[in-house]
Amino acid sequence: MAKQIIWSIRAQNDRKQILEYWRNRNKSNTYSKKLDQRFREAINIIRGYSQIGKQTDDQKARIKIVKDYLLIYEETSDSIIVLTIWDSRQDPKKLEKILKP
Questions:
Q1: Can you tell me the distance from the alpha carbon of 13 to that of 22, in angstroms, rounded to the nearest whole number?
Q2: Could you report the per-residue pLDDT of 38-91, keeping only the tens digit for each?
Q3: Residue 67: CB partners within 8 Å, gap ≥ 6?
Q4: What is the distance between the terminal CA atoms of the chain, rounded to a whole angstrom?
């Protein structure tokens, strides 16, 4: 059975900022739309195959790579919670701070 997808506030904001950045940088919606479609496709794959992502040191969170971005999520018994979308070109120490409770 496919699980419900829940986007955290942080993940929603990350996605919005990423898409706005590319829209402003390129002066066009074309790339933003393609990137958003890739995020949606990755979520659909995760919905059906939640164990597909690489397990993190946290043991709860998993990572699915989408181009230069890491889609970080956790699985519960009935849902997938998208925690954040992380640009992998950033300092990884920042990500460690975000993922630590």
A1: 14
A2: 999 999 999 988 889 888 877 788 999 999 999 999 999 899 999 999 988 887
A3: 35, 38
A4: 30
User: For the segment 10-25, what is each residue's pLDDT rounded down to a tens digit?
Assistant: 999 999 999 999 999 9
Q: What CA–CA distance (Å, rounded) separates 53 from 66?
A: 11
Q: Which of 16, 88, 49, 101 is nearest to 41 (CA)?
A: 49
3 state SS of 47: helix
Three-state secondary structure call for residue 93? helix
Q: Which two tokens stand for residue 16?
A: 């919005």
Tokens (6 digits) for 58: 């946290």
